[in-house]
Specification:
- With about 550 residues, the protein is of the alpha/beta class.
- The chain has two domains: about 1-120; about 170-340 and about 385-540, Rossmann fold (3-Layer(aba) Sandwich), CATH 3.40.50.
- About 40% of the residues lie in helices and about 15% in strands.
- The chain is built from 19 helices and 17 strands.
- The longest helix has 26 residues, at about 20-45.
Length: about 550
């Protein structure tokens, strides 16, 4: 709230300093509004008039917005207002950081004020209320009460999904467990598998099954079908027993331990690794700090999927993270504590409010509809808590101070971090419409690592761009651009390819680890025995659920 108040203060002060430019802008705005009103009156009275064009904005795509004069006027007046404000603030005398914040919160406000979001000004909702004799309004009110009790807006039919029933279905077993992670080893799907296993490190702010959503859109299954031997990290949903954990714990007891276990079970010389989002940052940290020790981690390749290593430009999420916010959170979690996953999910959803907030307000409450079943949105709501000390350390040193990119500035697990010490072949994937990891920021990782780097850009956003099944042959990706220059220079020289980037990645991974061996018949080994079947117990715990502190479980205990 304090941040938004400061933003509006910045806006008002900038307008006052920019008064001469605003006077003609206001005159133009009033003239265009007058023309809209004149046209509405003429059309309403049956006189010849101009009808608004069909709208490409999904909020106003229904025919009622165009056919009914009053609602057509509301739509056009609102869109004119939005355009005017955005154009007006573009020229304000503000520094880049304040300018971004002003535009972001102004857009949030304008999106909230859309006539589609209110019953009295939404012709679709009014028509449905009349057609159903008010039943849609009653259903919408019940949906609202249900969501208030749940504490979040329903994005999908949550009763349609269950982890282990129609999500996270790939066959495997938990072969290791400590207070922070479970490690899943998947059963081979080919007679011969890669001699080096592939360890996947998902983001710790959501459940791992984003990489194993279903039989057709599972990256795990795809890798297995390509003959990879796959291991997965399943992060614990933090509770009061683990609220003290730090970034060091996530690196050492999470990522580093997982690499060691996969290495021991496979009997290979090295391990291929993949990190997604913050999982990639943790993975890069683990590799960098262990290069400083006597025993480097046995890693042969690194895949960074939608991952930031350089936080110079973090996109719109940066408007929430400033010094005051970080210091407030540090005080709040100075003695430990749980960061609710719901808070993080709501912050990310607000970045795309017109996709993840307002359509569901309209559908659930104004129209009384039930959202359709969609596995991706079920996963999006299946958030994961974080420990306060880990979360605040991450905010300060990565988002606020951008120290991960600086050699020998950060100390992790008692060693300094230098990403330049990472010399293994690296595959970097970014998505061109990613609102969480801007692709140009992901491109900057190519300058921080010392080994050979393959950069690939995919279509769509953070999740839909990353989870793009090869079997569906959708979208496209770009690769083989000229390196060493700017992101735009790379993009202009890159070669487009239709379909999923997974195919390109699988080929790259085969070149890094071509050797094959007979697929193992059993999961684990004498030291690390099967503890339970996949998907395991950690992934089933919803935020707010309790779990006993069970410590390390492995075959030699």
């Amino acid at each position: 709230m304090r941040r938004q108040q400061a933003t509006w203060q910045d806006l008002l002060e900038a307008i006052a300093r920019d008064a001469p430019r605003w006077q003609p802008l206001q005159t133009q705005f009033l003239e265009e509004q007058k023309n809209l009103w004149t046209n509405f009156v003429a059309r309403f009275s049956g006189q010849p008039s101009e009808q608004g064009e069909a709208d490409t904005d999904r909020r106003f795509s229904a025919s009622e917005w165009n056919e009914w004069p009053y609602f057509d006027y509301l739509r056009q007046s609102y869109q004119l207002t939005c355009r005017w404000w955005m154009e007006a603030v573009d020229g304000l005398p503000l520094d880049p950081e304040r300018h971004r914040r002003v535009k972001f919160f102004l857009k949030q406000y304008l999106d909230a004020c859309s006539p589609a979001n209110f019953l009295a000004t939404n012709p679709e909702a009014l028509k449905k209320a009349l057609d159903t004799q008010g039943q849609s309004l009653q259903a919408g009110f019940m949906n609202l009460l249900s969501d208030l009790a749940r504490g979040r807006i329903s994005l999908t039919d949550e009763s349609a999904f269950e982890v282990g029933r129609n999500l996270a279905l790939t066959s495997g077993a938990v072969v290791y467990q400590n207070d922070l992670i479970q490690i899943i080893q998947y059963r081979p799907q080919t007679s011969r598998v890669s001699a080096r296993p592939l360890l996947m490190v998902p983001p710790c702010i959501n459940k791992y099954y984003i990489l194993d959503l279903g039989s057709e859109d599972s990256m795990v299954r795809y890798a297995l079908e390509q003959g990879r031997a796959v291991f997965m990290v399943s992060w614990r949903n933090i509770d009061v027993c683990t609220a003290h954990l730090t970034w060091d714990d996530y690196v050492e007891q999470g990522v580093s331990r997982a690499i060691q276990v996969a290495h021991a079970i496979s009997g290979s010389d090295q391990v291929d690794t993949l990190g997604f989002c913050i999982g990639g940052a943790l993975l890069a940290c683990a590799l960098a700090v262990h290069e400083r020790g006597d025993q480097p981690l046995p890693v042969s390749s690194l895949t960074l999927m939608a991952t930031l290593l350089d936080y110079s430009d973090v996109g719109d999420i940066g408007v929430y993270i400033d010094r005051d916010f970080v210091e407030m959170r540090e005080r709040e979690f100075a003695a430990g504590g749980v960061v609710p996953g719901r808070d993080l999910a709501q912050a990310f959803s607000s970045l795309r409010a017109n996709d993840l907030v307002w359509p569901y307000v309209v559908g659930n409450y104004l129209k009384g509809e039930q959202p359709p079943a969609f596995n991706l949105l079920f996963w999006n709501n299946d958030d994961t808590n974080l420990p306060g000390p880990m979360f605040t350390w991450y905010l300060r040193h990565f988002y606020l101070q951008n120290q991960l990119r600086c050699p020998d500035v950060l100390q992790v697990a008692g060693r300094s971090v230098d990403l330049g010490k990472i010399r293994v072949p690296t595959y970097i994937f970014a998505a061109q419409e990613d609102h969480i990891v801007p692709w140009k920021s992901a491109f900057e990782s190519t300058r921080l690592l010392s080994g050979p780097v393959e950069f690939v850009l995919g279509a769509s956003g953070h999740i839909a761009g990353s989870i793009n099944p090869a079997s569906r042959n959708r979208r496209q990706y770009w690769c083989d651009g000229q390196t060493g220059g700017t992101p735009d220079e790379w993009r202009n020289s890159a070669v487009p390819h239709p379909g999923s980037w997974w195919v390109h990645w699988a080929g790259w991974l085969d070149r890094q680890s071509p050797a094959r061996k007979r697929a193992p018949k059993n999961m684990g080994n004498r030291q690390f025995v099967v503890l339970e079947e996949a998907p395991g117990s950690y992934v089933r715990v919803r935020s707010g659920g309790e779990m006993t502190n069970i410590g390390e479980r492995r075959g030699d205990q």
